[in-house]
Amino acid sequence: TNALMEGTQPAAAASTSDPLPFYGEHQAGIVTPAQDRLHFVSFDVITKKRDELIDMLQEWTASAARMTQGKDSGTFGAVGGAIEAPPDDTGEALGLPASGLTITIGFGPSLFDDRFGLAAKKPGALADLPKFPGEDLLPEISGGDICVQACAHDPQVAVHAVRNLARIGFGKVSVRWSQLGFGRTSSTSRAQSTARNLMGFKDGTNNLKLEDASMLKQQLWVAPGDGPAWMSGGSYMVTRKIRMNIETWDRTSLSEQQQIFGRDKGEGAPLGKKHEFDELDFAAKNPDGTPVIAIDAHVRLAHPSTHGNAHLLRRGYNYVDGSDGLGRLDAGLFFIAYQRDPRKQFVPVQMELSRKDPLNEYIKHVSSGLFACPPGLRDAGDYWGRTLFA
Ligand SMILES: C=CC1=C(C)c2cc3[nH]c(cc4nc(cc5[nH]c(cc1n2)c(C)c5CCC(=O)O)C(CCC(=O)O)=C4C)c(C)c3C=C
Ligand SMILES: [Fe+2]
């Protein structure tokens, strides 16, 4: 396919239990067709020693190379090592297949302070996000020095991956926050059907997809000359935990719900059209002269034509963290988006949404993350952060 010729990851494994390639020009887990499950974790680095941090990243890379291929985290494994020592794998994935596991790393703005001599390497694109109207961010579940996005078709496999990286990082990093997600809310390949978010709408119809090779080059991957050379072939990740006021939404009429998004709930078709992938027609008018797709419909506000052709590769997940003690589901969307430069992509889109989107009556942004995801790993001699620490 075009995508393969461009050097991106292959479309999909034959089955959801198969392994996906770990090495490549770009990190796996970005254009990789979105798996069903997520365990996302953000770490603070607690060691003050640069060498210790590099050693840990090398150990993480070796472990991730193994786990993504369905192997134990370490060479001895859960039960093959000395009986007197803690095993180099925690064991809960023994007997489970690779399940399409991808492990993607990102470096947060706070890593580029004066602790590790990285200040001069901080990309401009990693500038802190502005404050958006209406957000209510909790610092304890926001930010972090290093993030890991583990995606798989089996939640136990994703959790196993994060747990073993945390185990390896003991004493060097500490978990700042983490998030489980189920039910992808985006497709990142035309081979996938569009899944639904917890508001019941198809989500990810007009997403950047792995088949759009020239768009990915223009909108997703950092190019030489964009900023520091170490990020070439990488991408910037924005995370937003968006709590939904589910019970209020569920008392809203179908017509109001559809007006808010600008698409119908059954098919996901643009209002005024029949099929999901029909073009949005923002000029179409009802007989009374009002626009068929409201002026403040979510898809109009978020559309590239509203933002100098800024696209995002969305890769979010539904989450339910139980209920909140008031009988309401503690649920929503763990939004993840990749892009070439958040200052030109996520920021203007979110600024528009935060000011005008009627969806804001039903949602609240409670956590935020911004991470620089370096390029892919070449081979077993490579490690996460090589280009940064070189
Ligand atoms: C800043 C970026 C975005 C945030 C935050 C966001 C939150 C959010 N979105 C939905 C549901 C839908 N979004 C849809 C489309 C859509 N959303 C964004 C961006 C953000 N959404 C973009 C760029 C687009 C595509 C617009 C286009 O070009 O057509 C849709 C429609 C289906 C689709 O195309 O994906 C839905 C549904 C929720 C529930 C939510 C916060 C909780
Ligand atoms: Fe959206």
Main sheet characteristics:
9 strands, antiparallel
Low-confidence stretches: 1-10
Q: What oligomeric assembly is this protein in?
A: single chain
In round numbers, the mean pLDDT is 96
Question: Approximately how much helix is present in the residues?
Answer: 10-25%
The overall strand count is: 9
Cα distance spanning the termini: 34 Å
Question: What overall form do the CA principal axes indicate?
Answer: globular
Subcellular location: Cell envelope
EC number: 1.11.1.-
Family: Belongs to the DyP-type peroxidase family.
Protein name: Deferrochelatase
Describe the protein.
The chain has 390 residues and is an alpha+beta fold. The chain has one domain (2-115, 131-384). It is 19% helix and 19% strand. The protein has helices spanning 2-5, 50-67, 155-168, 213-219, 246-249, 254-261, 298-302, 346-356, 386-389; strands spanning 37-45, 102-107, 146-152, 173-184, 235-244, 313-314, 317-323, 329-339, 363-373. Strands 1, 2, 3, 4, 5, 6, 7, 8 and 9 form a nine-stranded antiparallel β-sheet that branches. Helix 2 (50-67) packs antiparallel against helix 3 (155-168). The longest helix is centred in the first third of the chain and has 18 residues, at 50-67. The protein is globular and about 75 Å long. Residues 1-10 have low confidence and may be disordered. The chain binds the ligand C=CC1=C(C)c2cc3[nH]c(cc4nc(cc5[nH]c(cc1n2)c(C)c5CCC(=O)O)C(CCC(=O)O)=C4C)c(C)c3C=C and fe (ii) ion. Fe (ii) ion (FE2) binds at residues 298, 302.
